[in-house]
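Notebook B, p. 112. Complex prediction, attempt 2.
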Amino acid sequence: MPQNNTLIYSSSPHIRSKITTKKIMQDVCIALIPATIMGIVLFGLKALLLIFLSCFTAVASEIIFNLINKKTFIQCVKEFDYSSLVSGLLLGLTVGTNYPWYTVIFGSIFSIIVVKMLFGGTGKNLVNPAITGRIFIFISFQSVVGAWVLPNVNSIFTNNISTGATVIESLIKNGNKNLSSLDLLLGSRVPGCIGETCKLAIWAGAIYLAVKKIINITYPLIYIVVEGIFAVALKGFDFSYFLPSILSGGLIFGAFFMATDYTTSPDTKTANIIYFICLGLITAGLREATKMEATSFAILLMNLTVPLFDKFIINKPFGYQKQKKIKGGEKHE
Amino acid sequence: MSILKAKKTSHGSRIHGTKISNNSPIESIPTPNVVYISTSQHIGSPAIPIVKIGDKVKKGQLIASESGFVSANIYSSISGTVVNITDLINGMGQNQKYIVIENDNLNEEMILDPLPDKEPQTVINRIRIAGIVGLGGAGFPTAVKLSPKSSIDTLVVNGAECEPYLTCDYRLMIERTDDIYKGIKIVADALKVKHIVIGIEINKPLAIEAFSKFSDLDVVVLKKRYPMGSEKHLIYATTGRKVAPGKMPFDVSCCVQNIKTLLACYEAVELNKPLTENIITVSGKGITEPKNLKVPFGTPYSDLIDYCKGLTEDAVKIIAGGPMMGKCLINLNQYTRKTDCGILCLKPNEINADEPSNCINCGTCIKRCPMHLSPVYIESFSLSGDYVNAEKYGALNCIECGLCSYNCPAKRALVQSIQIAKTKIKEMKNNATK
C-alpha cells in the first residue's frame, strides 16, 4: 500500500483526457507532411532547404528566447509544445523557392519572437505567426523576392505567365483560364508557394485533422465556398470562375491550416460561422481590388477582429430561452 | 410500457474510464468493529446528537436528530456502545462532528413503527423521519424535494449513472428491480404524478431490459454522454423541457429521484427500515479486486479497501465519489456517508495529470460545456479577481461537472477557478444583503 505522502491531491475532475497541446500540435505537423512532401517533389531541394531553415530557426528562436528569460534548458525542452515547429513549417510552406534563404530566417525569427513570444508565448499571440512572418518577408524583401511568387523551376507552364504572377493573379488580371482544374488540384504545372500548390496533399492533411477532431472542417469549407461565390459575383456571375478561384493561390492552404488556428479564431459556433463568412468575403474582395493573392492579408485582418468576436458573441446559458417566457409569466401573476 | 430514444441532448462529451465492477454482484461486508458516523452527511444544517458517551444503541436507533427544515435524521448503523462524540478532521480535510460507536456483536436491530396509512403526507413524513436524502451525491433531503411549491406532473428516475467507474446504481437496477419499482410507485403516489420516466444510459442494456417490463414506466434510452445524470440535462433528455438558469426542476413540473433514494424510500415505507446503509462501488485500477459493497454508514474507508484486497503498489489517488465530481482524499481517515457512491483508487495512467500550460484558445471547454457557458473567460476573470464579470458570464450556472477541465488540452484547472469565483460571488451577494 502506498504511503500517504505519495498520494496526489487535487481539485475535481480527477481524470483528464489524453489530449494535450503537444499532441494537437504534433497532429498538425503530421497533417502538413503530405503538403511538405509534394512541395519538395514539385520544387526540388531548394524547397527542402527553405522548409528546414524555417523550422529550425523557429524552434531555435523559441528556445533562445526562453533561455534569455532565465529558464533552464531542461525547462525549455519540457515546455516545448511543437507550436513553434508548426509555425516554422507553415512559414516554410508559404514561401516560394525564389526566396533567398536568409529572408526565410528573418521571417521565422520575426514570427516567433515578435509575433508570438513577446506577446506571451503559445496561445497569447494576437495574429497567426506564420502568416505575419510571410507578410513580413513579402513587405521587407520586396526588391529581392520580386513582385510576388515567381514561377518555379519545375513548372512547365511558363509561356503564358512570364510576369511572375501566380495563377490567381493571372486569373484576376487577364481572365486566364488555361489551366485545367485537375492541374490546379494536383499542383503540377502551377507556379506558387512550396506547400500551397498541391491541393490534393492539403486536402489529405485537412481530412486527417478533421478525423482527429482537431479542426471542424465545416468552417474552412464555409470560407472556401463563400470566397468562391463572392469571386463569381464580383465577376458578374461568371460561374466558370468558381473552381479556378477556389483552387488557386493560397486559399485552401490558408483556410485549412491558417484560419483554423485555435488561438486566432473565435471560440463559439456562431462567432466562427460569421468569422469564416467574413474571411471569404474579404479574401474575394481584396483579390479583386488589389489584383493579387490576398488570402494571407485577409486572414491577418480578420485575426485582429477575433477579440471582438470573443467579447460580443457569447453562448447563452442552457435553458436561457425558457427564462424569458417564465419572466413574462411572472409579470402576469 | 415503451422504450423511447432520448429526445434531445445538450453538449457534453464522452469520457474514458471503464465500469470495471459492472459484473460483480453487491456483497455485504462483515460488520465493522467501530463506525464513525458524521452528523453532517447532507446539505443543510448538521444533525444534533441525542445520545451520550456510554449509551447502548441498537442498529436503526436514532442517534442524531434533524436541526431544521433542510436537515436529516441520522440512525445508528450497528448495535453497540457510543464511545465518543468528537470533532474530527476527515480525509477530505473537513472538520465535522462524529459519533463513534463500537460494535458489541449483538446485532440488535430496531425498526420504525408501521405506517397507519399510505396518504401522501404520511409517506413524505416517513421519508423525512427515516433520514432519507438525495443519495446520488447532492444529499438534499428528499422530503423537501417531495414537497414542492408548484405541482409536479412527471417523475424522472435517474438511472443514468454517467460517471465512469461507478456501478452501484446499475447493480441495484438489475438486482433489485422490483423493490426499486415499488419505491418509484411510492414516490409517484406521494407526488400524485401519473407520468413516470426512467432515463438509463445505453451502455446498461440489462437495466433497460429489466425496467421495460413495467407497463406504467417509460424507459428512455439515453446516449452515453457525461453529464447525463445531471438533473437539468436528464429532464431535457427525457422530457424535452429546459430548466432555466437559476430555476429548479419543479419549475418545469418535474421531480428527479435517484435509484438509491427510491430504494431507500421503499425500505422506509414498506419495511419500516431507517436509512442505515449504502451501496458503494470500490473501483479503479489501483484496487486489487473492484467490488460493489453494501456497507453500514460510518465504516472506515480502510476497511472497505482491505475487504477488496487492498491497494496496488502504484495507486496514486484515492477519491470519494466519481472521478469527475468526487473529492480527493488526503488520507484514509474517511468514513462512509449517505451521499457516497464510490471509492476510487486510480493509477497514474488513468488520471493523466499534467502541469497546466497556457490556454491555446481552442474553445473546447465552450464546445463541451453542458450549461453552454464560457469556462475559459470565467476562469480568466476568476484568476484576475474580477468576480463581477465572472458572474456576468454565468459563473453561478456552472454545475461543476468538470468537463471543461477534463477536455482542456492545456490541462488548466478551469472548474477549480470557477468554484472559487462562485464562492466569492456568493460571499459578495451575502455582504451586499447585510
